Amino acid sequence: MSGCNIQLTHKARILEKTRRIVVKVGSSVLSDGDGVYAPRVRQLATILSALQQAEVVLVTSGAVAAGMGALNMKQRPRTIPAKQAAAAIGQITLMALYEECFSRYAIRVAQILLTHDDLANRRRYLNAKHTLLTLIESGVVPIVNENDTVAVEEIQFGDNDNLSAQVAVLVEADLLIILSDVAGLYETDPRVDRHAKRIALVERFDEQLMQRCGQAGPLGRGGMTSKIEATQKAALSGIPSLLIDGRSNEELYAAFDPQREVGTLFLPVSDRIASRKHWIAYTLKPAGSLRLDAGAAAAIRRDGRSLLPAGVRGVRGNFEEGDCVTCLDDGGDEFARGLVNYSAAALRQIQGVHTSRIEQTLGYKVSDEVIHRDDLALLQD
How is 277-317 classified by DSSP, letter by letter? Predict the structure, then answer.
């Protein structure tokens, strides 16, 4: 059976069960070089409005591009303040256009602006989830964007591909569709090789797959690498993804047709990570690291054990209780992330110590475990 036929088999099964879709549209799709291309936004609204019995969340780029058009800027601003200024102006233009286009079909939209901090904080993560679900249940299309007007380097998602994967996990979507300026993943770069062969179906994520990724375009922060990383994050939470050319109306319609093969379909992995552990592994930014001995690393990897102080050989960073840290094996390789029960200062005192001596050493004891197994997430190799 050919790759295309295999894709159709999987795609038909996925669409049959799909009720909630996250659609990500990038700057390279929305922009015509002088700002946001309004006819494309209108066409996107037309197609999404026509979906029957489907709940849609739209993750959009384009605020900076829209602001560039308003400010007559010919090149993407390089400094953070200039990008924030362009985004502040462009966000109004972009949302007004979306509201106009969806209102033609009596569909209301709502703007949701997020930073990495919003999803890294568990309480704000849940608040964002509840808001999005309430909007969806009310028949409103949430339009999500990174809050470029306040986001700086340490709180940026880095690209809206990554944001779209986080949102898909957040709302427990059945499908993530990424609209790009290419018609899928290719075996070679189609911008260089006009005979490049498109890959219809990706069943597993490996190093060979990452080597096929391209570089970022002039208007977007994310290239093919960020798209593959996004689809992998979605896959780890049991969500399939479809990467298509969002500039083509034909491909947009084909994306929702179970009998038409299009783009590249990424299947979810069979070993689904629980939502909380996915949040720990792929949303939080580690505040430090712990170097573990071989026995502790093996117990976590093989047996799913908690991390005890006796297994800690080194502490880096100035983190506090409850922060996310990365776990390194005795070779220095990162293999897990988790939420610590002790601060870095306390851990430096009890590293290598048996649990029976924690209170004697510190004068108090919060827990026997440095990281409980329920707060430990293994990273995919």
Answer: HHHHHHTSPPSEEEEE-HHHHHHHHHH-PPBPGGGEEEEEE
